[in-house]
Amino acid sequence: MATKDLTHEEFAPAVEGEGIVFVDFWAAWCGPCRAFAPVFEQASEQHPDILFTKVDTEAEQQLAAEFQITSIPTLMVFRDGILVYAQPGALRAQQLDQLIQGARELDMDDVRRQIAEHETEPSS
Question: Which of 22, 24, 44, 67 falls between 20 and 30 A from 94, CA-CA?
């Protein structure tokens, strides 16, 4: 499966569902983004059960602002509608493979429990 370009309107429906979604925030003028693109595309072909998406920060400036993207490329990973990873920087293929494996192995019941505990903690 090839990567899918996301617009502002398509973003929420894509990341809020079940499953794993990788989002690459990029721009055409960005050298590291262009270097990362083939690595990201190859991973999308090797893992057809994962949705690999791209957001052009020039075309989707509102979306980039909503997610406070200040450095590109920035990679985000959503699992079952929960943001589980967000870091700037291009990854090598081996690093991306490790991130994919980590996303697959997450215990989402534990993640939800931790989120619930954090939300119920009194603020100081």
Answer: 67
d(CA 13, CA 4): 13
pTM of the predicted protein model:
0.92
CATH number where 72 lies: 3.40.30.10
For the chain, state the CA radius of gyration. 15
Catalytic amino acids?
30, 33
Would you say residue 24 has pLDDT above 90?
yes
Number of domains in the chain: 1
